[in-house]
Amino acid sequence: MMKKIICLFLIxxxxxxxxxxxxxxxxxxxxxxxxENKYIRLLDVWIKPGDTSQFHIHCTPSVFLYFTNTTVxxxxxxxxxVTAKNESGKASYRSFDNDTLVHRVSNxxxxxxxxxxxxxxxxxxxxxxxxxxxxxxxFDNEKAIAYRLSYSSLTNQIISGRGPMVAELVAGDEVICYxxxxxxxxxxxxxxxxxxxxxxxxxxxxxxxxxxxxVLFEIx
Length: 220
What we know:
By secondary structure, the protein is mainly beta. It folds into two domains: 2-120, Jelly Rolls, CATH 2.60.120; 136-219, Jelly Rolls (Sandwich). The chain has one helix and 19 strands. The chain has one helix at 2-16, and strands at residues 23-24, 31-36, 40-47, 56-58, 62-66, 70-76, 81-86, 91-94, 101-107, 113-120, 136-140, 144-149, 159-160, 165-172, 175-179, 184-188, 193-196, 201-206, 212-219. The strands form four sheets. The chain has a five-stranded mixed β-sheet, with helices on one face.
């Protein structure tokens, strides 16, 4: 609760300054809000070559996934520009505790820049330890677990009784998520994502012998 109060206070301060133009990240025009519920807010970010975002504020714990190999330039408010190459498929986490970030991002490349920013709004079962699934773990911290799935990982193994999840397909043919309770299937296409309700029972499948690069985030 205290973290949220501090975050809201900082945003109010930034808004009150007449000579500033930064906005909360969820209001930055290139950060499109596509999913929001009790647990997460998923922002789908596209920046065209040569385009630059507004200064925006990050102050909520977040997980990020890059979909493109793009050179971007970023500038923290009041500091010099920094250039970096983003790698497709890279997943990361940043708590922003005592680390509020106000910056803008410019696409310095000739190809679009695509990344998702999932803000973690509420924990699922903060008092209960969650053991990782038997998958490749990219990171495991106090807020979330990130897994890498390839074709060999999609063995129709049923996953059930877990926390909220977001599946994001970085590369490869489409992946099917089959809900064993509702008997419904959802197609996840390249560059897209799918939110999985907590407590669901499901499995993933894909076309035979096709390369798959998918990241699965689980909220603790």
